[in-house]
Design brief:
With about 70 residues, this protein is mostly helical. About 55% of the residues lie in helices and about 0% in strands. The relative contact order is 0.07.
């Protein structure tokens, strides 16, 4: 009748049972953290390293950075 998948209905129902109406509030679908994000300090160090070695290909640059740092 609602035009939604039954799995969605049962997920909403389970949230309602666990936490009343407040549990039905919209939640962000994005993860709280990104597992492969490079920290800013390492990113900056790599950029400086890359600028010092402009003649290398990306693969060579990655290998050289990994070996030296």
């Amino acid at each position: 009748m609602l035009g939604i998948p039954s799995s969605t209905y049962y997920q909403w129902y389970a949230r309602w049972v666990d936490g009343d109406v407040d549990a039905l509030a919209d939640r962000s679908p994005r993860p709280r953290s990104v597992w492969n994000r490079i920290p800013d300090d390492i990113r900056q160090a790599f950029l400086e390293f890359a600028l010092d070695h402009e003649d290398l290909t990306p693969r060579e640059l990655a290998v050289k950075y990994t070996d030296e740092k």
